[in-house]
Amino acid sequence: MSCPDPHYTGDAKQKGIQGSVRILITVTEQGAVENARAVGGVEVGLELASLRAVSGWHLKPATDSDGKPFPARVPVEVTFRLLP
Amino acid sequence: MGAPQLCDEFDAVLHTNLEKLIPDVKFIQREEAVKHLTDHGFLGVDAYMGALDDVASDAGAEVVIGEDFQRKGRGCDLRTTVTDAKHLYALGDLATGISCSAVLTKTTLSLLKDPISGVSMIVPLPQLLDVPAALPLSTFLPV
Known about the structure:
Chain A is of the alpha+beta class. Chain A has helices at about 10-15, 45-55; strands at about 20-25, 35-40, 60-65, 70, 70-80. Chain B is α+β, with helices and mostly antiparallel strands.
């Protein structure tokens, strides 16, 4: 599994914007992320940064009772927090 | 009555009451809602994960009404959320507790498959052994 963090955009950092971006992703049988879509993001720049990062993730695919992988749709929440 | 039937009845009661309160109310049908989702790059199953809020305004809707049925403690909760489609803020959040089985039930994982993309959503489904045969209709009147 590989899940690199998204970059905190300079604009959002400067404006002190914090919050969460909710993203719906499809994890393919191979564990790749496809068709990532944001729902109700906190700010456009952070939304795009999250989509970019999540699209490069590699995850363990969902498997059925026989251990056979199948494509699954899952929600992911990316939270941005600024350290004081 | 199982959870799907309960939700269908809940939906029917909600429609009836909204039609009484707002005579010219219009509902977007399931197929149309799915089309709006796919037009925006979502999958049909994304409707269960909040995506309708994002496309409702473009679909001409003024409000999005969400319904949820969950086990809570030793009872069950029927929850209705009303969201302003244009500004995406909650207009109302109504919940009613109903008595349902206190007998231990297990939660099973089911797959909800999107017929167009073939992608599945994993849904935890509590197995309810005993839920009321009818809904408390008055609960929905404040909508």
